[in-house]
Amino acid sequence: MSNSSQINNLNLFKENTVSSHDGTTIGYRSVGTGPGILIIHGALSDSEDYTQLANNLAQYFSVHIMDRRGRGMSGAQGKNYGINKELEDVQAVRNETNANFIVGHSYGGLVALEVARQERTVEKLALYEPGVFIYHQQWQWLSDYEVAIKRKDYREAFAHFVRGIGHTPQLTKLPKWYVKFILKIMIRGQSWDKKVSMLPENLNEHREVQRLSGTYGNYRSLEVDTLLMVGGKSSPFIKQMIQELGRTISECRTLTIPNTDHFGLDNDHCPKDVASHLRSFFAYE
Question: How far, in Å, CA of 262 to CA of 204, rounded?
């Protein structure tokens, strides 16, 4: 999406803030009318990255995209950051917006699952490739990432993350120096500056992903109607995770979105039919 198009998109939104339980300011953007949907974005992104999806839902719903703490309109993660802080932030926004439908992407999907597990007022839950790890993974890359962050070698840190997390299968097995070279060509300018600004937060968030890896059995207790979405081009381990999670959550259906990958909800990758699937799931044809 061009910068001018994104600015025009943002002009349609009302910006709001609310105070979380610990006093941290949490910002969110709102558009549309109708039942409330809250979109919880993934790592290395913010509310601006989901405006296209929100606009495609706004004819039927009041759509709210929060800035998770550590980016955008929201305050810092804080010294005692953990997923419980995220849950408090989500609840603060929900208290203000009455949004009982939730859409979660990647790390935001993990947050959404934990919200729904602990808060029974969530009526429907749509997840696009939530940040759930079925098995304990190799997490050496996380230590390498942290070392690179401390050295302020952000290109090195980002290469460790992309290779280690495995969302882009074609890059996972390539040598790190080559991945670093490719990413430097692909991501530059304002896009790169934005990612750099969130790399430390990404480290803290993936420590939480590591801590919760292998605990997906907790989601057997979910009683909320759930839609699990996966990209047709996503990695085999993500597709395996979706299958296992689909068997674990009792009221769950799965949906494959063709011709897209792990980034299938953000502005640059979101196909229009995703919004139609969500409208149908949230009871509007």
Answer: 20
Based on the domain organization, do 129 and 228 belong to the same domain? yes
Q: Out of 49-53, 137-141, 142-146, 279-283, pick the least confident.
A: 137-141
**Average pLDDT estimate for 219-240:** 94
The answer to whether the beta carbons of residues 55 and 9 sit under 8 Å apart is yes
Q: Helices then strands (H, E): number in the chain? A: 11, 8
Backbone angles phi, psi at 31, to 5 degrees: -155, 150
Rg (CA), the chain: 18
In the chain, what percentage of residues exceed pLDDT 70?
95
Hey, what are 151's tokens? 């050295």
Range of the domain at 176: 140-210
> Which of 150, 175, 210 is the endpoint of a domain?
210
Cβ(128)–Cβ(49) under 8 Å? Answer: no
pLDDT digits (tens, 9 = 90+) for 196-215: 999 999 999 999 999 999 99
**223 and 202 both lie in a single domain:** no
Query: What are the CA-CA distances from residue 201 to residues 75, 77, 79, 98 (Å)?
Result: 12, 7, 11, 28
Picking from 185, 210, 235, the residue at the C-terminal end of a domain is 210
Residue 191 has pLDDT above 80, yes or no: yes
Indicate if 123 and 237 belong to the same structural domain. Answer: yes
Q: Helix (H, G, I), strand (E, B), or coil: what is residue 81?
A: coil
The answer to whether residues 96 and 104 touch, using CB atoms and an 8 Å cutoff, is: no
**CB-CB neighbours of 228 under 10 Å:** 22
* Pair (28, 68) in one structural domain: yes
- Strand, coil or helix: 126: strand
